[in-house]
Design a protein that fits this description.
385 residues, alpha/beta, Rossmann fold, Dehydroquinate synthase-like, alpha domain, seven-stranded mixed β-sheet, oxidoreductase, Iron-containing alcohol dehydrogenase, ADH_Fe_C, NAD
Length: 385
Amino acid sequence: MSLITYLTTIRFAPGALAELGDDLQELNIRKPLIIADVGLERAGLIDRLRNVLPNGSDVPTFTGTPTNPTEGAVLAALDLYRSRGCDGLIAIGGGSPIDLAKGVALLSTHSGPLEGYAAILGGIPKITAAVAPLIALPTTAGTGSEVGRAALITLEDGRKLGFISPHLIPQRAICDPELTLGLPPALTAATGMDAITHCVETFLSPRFNPPAEAIALDGLERAVKNIERAVTHGDDAAARHEMMMAALEGGLTFQKGLGAVHALSHPLGGLKQVSLHHGTLNAVLLPYVIEFNEKNCGPKYDVLRQRVGIGPGANLADFFRNLNARLDMPESLAAMGVPRVTLPSIAESATKDHSSATNPRPASASDYLAILEAAYEGGSLHAST
């Protein structure tokens, strides 16, 4: 039996894609819109999806999802949804198509503008159960968006905002590890580090939720044991299975809240000067936030050390730095092409991000700027302060 019910209903098994028709029937979706991107089209994954759909060749598809989903793309997909008389969505891909589909599901039943539903602008209670039904099929093992209550969307004015509601959790998630077997090594590494960051940050969040913490720790352990194998041996079905479960578990813990890594990576991902991958940003920032939070986390760091397999008192930040190096992640924000002149504004934006409130150590704009400066140069936060 491949069904799991925790926040939503999940099919988790190799070959689970074949069961999509059952979910469409159960959700009473007769005219779905597929949300994807051009990379998935080139990889043949949309054709695989169409092959299991009733009248698959006639199902409309939106492939204009950008690397970081935008308000403009949401509105373009919404126009297609309405013009074709659709009554539900199928999102296939990484976090970008799934988040974009959440935006379409929201605006298809709620009046605009989109920014009115942003979490930091008081939009959470405005999102109702009337959202269009959404089925999510992840093809990466990282974002956890297939079971997450949030969508990150960059508005026309450049702000990257979070839209958060339990009603935005997809009604079905189909987690088929076979869909990740062709994922390139660099993307496997970046999305895998995204999953690891989710597990670490949700575990460290000060909110009280022991079940979520247990899930986060299990996901972290699976990920650190399998990420390098998945990167170097992309056809290893067992490693792909474990990484998809780790990503799913990271997403299942989102309701506990994230932290400073995401508070920083969200506005960085909204920069117009350069396109930055969310998972790669999280990988680069994680060691510095680990250093920043250490004095506030007490015994939780000992638990993390035990789960990742290092000794008591070992340097946890260096563990993640070394893991990044083995995965060929960039060494710094400078190496990613982040313009240094943007750092002060990113630090200020981080204080307003919804993830900042659940960082275990309160962070001011100057704290965030110190983290950014250290991550820009590489090395250690403590060495630079």
